[in-house]
């Protein structure tokens, strides 16, 4: 328990530091897109940074509750369920999507997602903090802690709702300000945008299933409570 708490405190501290550095670096560069309509909240990378920070904060609270408030079993159970649900539905699939999509597009043509001019604004280590380190932290978390997954239908539905909300936010930003969050989107017509958004949304499903599968490989299928027999 102490080792897991120390791990979560370290991961939380790292993510808080990453968000703080993101705010400081992009705040100092007036030419950065963070100062246009929507601010930093139009970037999925920043949203994911905040999401990972919130997730590991929940992990810390979940670890502390049984130690600090041993009699509050309902609170401990709630925090544990919140931790597991957040990991399964958002933290793991969205985190992996950010890493995979960023580096996949970057390898093809970095100007479509991370123009070279950003190298003079965002240091390389912070770039990797936002787009690389997320994955190993999630894999360590998966290995260190058993997470109970919700039903696949429920989990994927919540994840899909999050994805749709972000896509609607991107489209609203373009409608309200005339700018696209990512240069790639400016190169697509209406059909291309529809295909891109649909493809991006569908890609998150295998990432959700990957987390579920890796959890099963590491921890096995969690036992289900026995059914109560009906009284005759």
UniProtKB/TrEMBL annotation:
<dbReference type="GO" id="GO:0012505">
    <property type="term" value="C:endomembrane system"/>
</dbReference>
<dbReference type="InterPro" id="IPR006838">
    <property type="entry name" value="ADTRP_AIG1"/>
</dbReference>
<feature type="transmembrane region" description="Helical">
    <location>
        <begin position="156"/>
        <end position="174"/>
    </location>
</feature>
<feature type="transmembrane region" description="Helical">
    <location>
        <begin position="42"/>
        <end position="65"/>
    </location>
</feature>
<feature type="transmembrane region" description="Helical">
    <location>
        <begin position="194"/>
        <end position="219"/>
    </location>
</feature>
<feature type="transmembrane region" description="Helical">
    <location>
        <begin position="86"/>
        <end position="105"/>
    </location>
</feature>
<keyword id="KW-0472">Membrane</keyword>
<dbReference type="Pfam" id="PF04750">
    <property type="entry name" value="Far-17a_AIG1"/>
</dbReference>
<keyword id="KW-1133">Transmembrane helix</keyword>
<comment type="similarity">
    <text>Belongs to the AIG1 family.</text>
</comment>
<dbReference type="GO" id="GO:0016020">
    <property type="term" value="C:membrane"/>
</dbReference>
<protein>
    <submittedName>
        <fullName>Androgen-induced gene 1 protein</fullName>
    </submittedName>
</protein>
<keyword id="KW-0812">Transmembrane</keyword>
């Amino acid at each position: 328990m102490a080792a897991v708490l120390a791990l979560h405190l370290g991961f939380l501290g790292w993510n808080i530091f990453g968000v703080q550095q993101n705010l400081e670096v992009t705040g100092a560069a007036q030419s950065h897109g963070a100062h246009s309509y929507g601010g930093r909240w139009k970037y999925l990378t920043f949203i994911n940074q905040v999401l990972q920070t919130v997730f590991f904060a929940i992990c810390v609270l979940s670890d502390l509750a049984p130690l600090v408030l041993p009699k509050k079993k309902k609170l401990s159970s709630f925090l544990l369920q919140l931790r597991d649900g957040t990991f399964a539905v958002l933290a793991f699939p969205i985190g992996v999507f950010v890493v995979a999509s960023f580096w996949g597009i970057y390898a093809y043509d970095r100007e479509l997602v991370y123009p070279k001019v950003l190298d003079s604004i965002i240091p390389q280590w912070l770039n990797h903090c936002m787009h690389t380190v997320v994955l190993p932290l999630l894999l360590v978390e998966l290995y260190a802690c058993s997470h109970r997954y919700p039903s696949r239908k429920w989990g994927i539905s919540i994840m899909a709702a999050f994805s749709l909300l972000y896509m609607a936010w991107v489209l609203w930003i373009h409608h309200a300000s005339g700018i696209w969050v990512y240069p790639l989107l400016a190169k697509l017509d209406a059909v291309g945008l529809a295909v891109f958004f649909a493809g991006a949304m569908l890609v998150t499903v295998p990432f959700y299933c990957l987390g579920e599968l890796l959890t099963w490989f590491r921890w096995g299928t969690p036992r289900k409570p026995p059914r109560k027999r009906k009284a005759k």
